[in-house]
Amino acid sequence: MPDPIPTDLRELRYVQHFSVWALRTSVACSPTCRVLLREFDRAFAGDIEEGLADFHALVRSLGAGRRKVSIGRPGHVELTHDERGLLALLGAAQSGDRERFLAHARFVMGHDRLGDLYDSACAFTGRLRAKGHFFSKPLMIDLEDATFQAGLSATG
C-alpha cells in the first residue's frame, strides 16, 4: 500500500517536494531559471542535463492532456488536488505499478492515451531512484540498489 500523500508541501518527502516545486517554478518562471538549475543539480548529483531532459519530457507529456492541470503558485504550502494526483502518479511509476499509474493518469490527463506520459514518468522517477530519492518508503532492495548505483557514480 502506498504512503498517503499529505496536503501540505511542508510534510512531503524531499523528492515529492522537489517535484512539485520544480513544476511550479518552471511554469511560473523559466525552465532555465538559475534557482531551478541549482536544485536539479542537487537532486541529480551532477546528472543535471539528463534530469532536466527527463523532467521536460514529463512536463510536455502532461501538457498533452485534455484537462488543464491545476498547480499552485511557488511558495504556496497547500497542494492542489492535481498536484497530489501527480505525486501519486509519479510514485506509481517509480514503483512499477502500471495499473495504479494508469488510474491516476486517466484522471490527470482526461483521456486514455498515456504511453508517452508513462514512459516519461518512468524515466524521471527512475533517474531520481538511482540517486536515492524515493516517492514512498523504499524496500531494502531499493536502498541496496541505490547505494550500488551511487557507488558506481562515485568511482567513475
Report on this structure.
The chain is mostly helical. The protein has one domain. Helix content is 65%, strand content 0%. It has seven helices and no strands. The chain has helices spanning 14-28, 34-44, 48-63, 81-95, 98-109, 115-130, 140-155. Helix 2 crosses helix 3. The protein starts with 13 loop residues before the first helix and ends with a helix.
How are the secondary structure elements laid out?
Elements lengths: L13 H15 L5 H11 L3 H16 L17 H15 L2 H12 L5 H16 L9 H16 L1
Distance between the termini: 36 Å
Structural class: mainly alpha
C-alpha geometry:
globular
Q: What characterizes the major β-sheet?
A: none
Instruction: Work out the strand percent.
Output: under 5%
- The helix content is 55-70%
Question: What is the number of helical segments per DSSP (H or I, 4+ residues)?
Answer: 7
The helix/strand series, from N terminus to C terminus, equals: HHHHHHH
Q: Number of domains in the coordinates?
A: 1
Low-confidence stretches: none
Residue-averaged pLDDT: 85
Kindly state the number of beta strands.
Answer: 0
Q: What is the radius of gyration? A: 15 Å
Provide a compact summary of the structure:
This protein is an all-alpha fold and 156 residues long. It has one domain (9-155). Helices cover 65% and strands 0% of the residues.
Provide key terms for this protein.
mainly alpha, 7 helices, 65% helix
